[in-house]
From TrEMBL:
Dienelactone hydrolase domain mapped to chain residues: 28-95, 144-271
Originating species: Hypocrea virens (strain Gv29-8 / FGSC 10586) (Gliocladium virens)
Protein name: Dienelactone hydrolase domain-containing protein
Gene Ontology molecular function: any one: hydrolase activity
Lineage: superkingdom: Eukaryota
PANTHER family linked: DIENELACTONE HYDROLASE, DIENELACTONE HYDROLASE FAMILY PROTEIN (AFU_ORTHOLOGUE AFUA_4G08790)
A Pfam family reported for this protein in Swiss-Prot or TrEMBL: DLH
InterPro entries in the cross-refs: AB_hydrolase_fold (IPR029058), Dienelactn_hydro (IPR002925)
Length: 279
């Protein structure tokens, strides 16, 4: 199951600069590199529980486009059934010193938000939606451009499934993956099945993936052959969700999220370059 921290965090300020369009069968937020620069490759964001319309996800997509020079897609893989944003408020109250009646109310409110999300978006149910999008992308734009997948919390599981190496027209659906604090993993089998390179940004204080589990993932991915070899970075003093929902009031939290962003961009730049050279 996902952990309570999957539904905690802050909403970031800013105005996303991309556009909403229909791409590869899904409503999708898309943003191009700034100043009309040609894209180095395509990065598809697989979001946390709050889905494709969450401001934090769209602002992160903008940063990938601006700092990485990628064309970025954030599709609605959840068909409008993302966790509602009021969950952030309810989880904050449940961890506060609020009165018992307030907490009872917010327990019911939280369950009303999380259960439909989990039922509809359980990994095995969501996977065909994700796979179908990437199959179409690879056939079209992805035929000439490298493709990466960046997933957070809920989306991290889908990145791992993509990393298992499903193909279309003899090519893998992605060239490389990145995940920040993934959830819903089956360990160690999900990691052992990886056939493509995946970079992990892990939190030191993660109720779902402890440091010990993160280190076990590191041992597996770093021992894989070169074409599938991954990496793991553990960020000190961070919690689950820090890549997407860090509290911007705290400079250290912002820095850790920025460092994970740079990890992702560096990873895709390296693997997109390799994919371009081999094509």
């Amino acid at each position: 199951m996902s952990c309570p921290d999957c539904f905690r965090g802050s909403v970031h300020e800013g105005e996303p600069r991309g556009q909403v369009t229909h791409a590869y069968g899904r409503e999708t937020y898309v943003v191009e590199p700034a100043n009309g620069q040609p894209a180095k490759g395509i990065v598809v964001i697989l979001p946390d529980a709050f889905g494709w319309s969450f401001a934090n996800v769209r602002l992160l997509a903008d940063q990938y486009a601006d700092k990485g020079g990628f064309k970025v897609y954030a599709p609605d893989f959840m068909d409008g059934r993302a966790a509602p944003l009021y969950m952030l408020e309810s989880m904050k109250i449940l961890s506060s010193s609020a009165g018992i009646f307030s907490k009872i109310y917010h327990v019911g409110r939280a369950l009303g938000g999380v259960l439909p999300f989990i039922i509809y978006n359980w990994p095995s149910r969501a996977w065909p939606r994700v796979k179908g999008f990437f199959e179409q992308l690879r056939k079209e734009e992805g035929a000439s451009l490298p493709v990466g997948a960046a997933g957070f919390c809920w989306g991290g599981k889908q990145v791992i499934l993509l990393g298992h190496g499903d193909t279309i027209d003899g090519r893998p659906l992605i060239d490389a993956g990145f995940t920040g604090h993934p959830s819903l993993l089956t360990l160690p089998s999900d990691i052992e099945k990886l056939k493509l390179p995946v970079s992990f940004a892990m939190a030191e204080h993660d109720e779902y993936l402890s440091v010990e589990k993160a280190e076990s993932i590191r041992a597996i991915v770093e021992a894989k052959p070169e074409g599938a070899r991954g990496e793991v970075t553990i960020y000190p003093e961070t919690g689950h969700g820090f890549c997407v929902r860090a509290d911007q009031k705290f400079p250290q939290s912002v820095k850790q999220a920025d460092d994970a962003l740079e990890q992702c961009i560096k990873w895709f730049n390296a693997h997109f370059s390799s994919a371009s050279q081999s094509s």
